[in-house]
Amino acid sequence: MRILIVEDDERIGSFLDKGLQESGYFVQVARDGVEARRLIQDETWDLFILDIMLPDMDGFQLTQLIRYRKMDTPILILSALGESEDKIKALDLGADDYLTKPIHFPELLSRINALRRRYELHYSKDNTLSCGDLTVNLDTNAVLRAGKEIVLSVKEFRFLVYLIENQNKIVSRSQILQVVWGAGSDTYTNVVDVYISYLRNKIDADFPEKCIKTVKGRGYMISAQK
């Protein structure tokens, strides 16, 4: 399950990012409305968690944008604004749930699970990604290559999902760092090369056809052999 968190408070954003990743979710954090708008438009998400008071574009406006674009992805508002008027406004604009800060993490997980169950009850959704004979199940985190199970670490799994979601496209080291290791990460870029090596050893080493490709000077790409 892919979750986009829009939260300008770095401490809260990091807390949510870490907690939800440890709970098995694929998470990305946007720090302002402009970055959130780009990610909403350019990528596919299973849940939006939005703060209301944001720089550039607030959570109400982002909710309007999501629904204006005919996206039925669940929206959970997570805000310090606890007045009934704020909750009513958010729900009327298209939010599915509203949780007031401070955050009680077990309750947040319960709300997320409830939204997920409600969404899956009404919509049939294929949560499997594939690239040739390589398949990734986003619900169970199972990875198969030609029917053979492949065990990945959390970071390896996130990295592979990002590559497959952008298959046949070149992704740069900086893009990979931002998505897999977090926006503004100070991790050295050679960690990307190290994890590419890990993935190749697990995904490609035992197969004659190689999925993961290096594009010299530009980054990496995953594609199925024709």
Automatic annotation (TrEMBL):
<dbReference type="InterPro" id="IPR039420">
    <property type="entry name" value="WalR-like"/>
</dbReference>
<keyword id="KW-0597">Phosphoprotein</keyword>
<keyword id="KW-0805">Transcription regulation</keyword>
<feature type="DNA-binding region" description="OmpR/PhoB-type">
    <location>
        <begin position="126"/>
        <end position="224"/>
    </location>
</feature>
<dbReference type="GO" id="GO:0006355">
    <property type="term" value="P:regulation of DNA-templated transcription"/>
</dbReference>
<dbReference type="GO" id="GO:0032993">
    <property type="term" value="C:protein-DNA complex"/>
</dbReference>
<feature type="modified residue" description="4-aspartylphosphate">
    <location>
        <position position="51"/>
    </location>
</feature>
<dbReference type="InterPro" id="IPR011006">
    <property type="entry name" value="CheY-like_superfamily"/>
</dbReference>
<dbReference type="Pfam" id="PF00486">
    <property type="entry name" value="Trans_reg_C"/>
</dbReference>
<dbReference type="InterPro" id="IPR001789">
    <property type="entry name" value="Sig_transdc_resp-reg_receiver"/>
</dbReference>
<dbReference type="InterPro" id="IPR001867">
    <property type="entry name" value="OmpR/PhoB-type_DNA-bd"/>
</dbReference>
<feature type="domain" description="OmpR/PhoB-type">
    <location>
        <begin position="126"/>
        <end position="224"/>
    </location>
</feature>
<dbReference type="GO" id="GO:0000156">
    <property type="term" value="F:phosphorelay response regulator activity"/>
</dbReference>
<dbReference type="GO" id="GO:0005829">
    <property type="term" value="C:cytosol"/>
</dbReference>
<keyword id="KW-0902">Two-component regulatory system</keyword>
<dbReference type="GO" id="GO:0000976">
    <property type="term" value="F:transcription cis-regulatory region binding"/>
</dbReference>
<keyword id="KW-0238">DNA-binding</keyword>
<dbReference type="InterPro" id="IPR036388">
    <property type="entry name" value="WH-like_DNA-bd_sf"/>
</dbReference>
<keyword id="KW-0804">Transcription</keyword>
<dbReference type="Pfam" id="PF00072">
    <property type="entry name" value="Response_reg"/>
</dbReference>
<feature type="domain" description="Response regulatory">
    <location>
        <begin position="2"/>
        <end position="116"/>
    </location>
</feature>
<protein>
    <submittedName>
        <fullName>Response regulator transcription factor</fullName>
    </submittedName>
</protein>
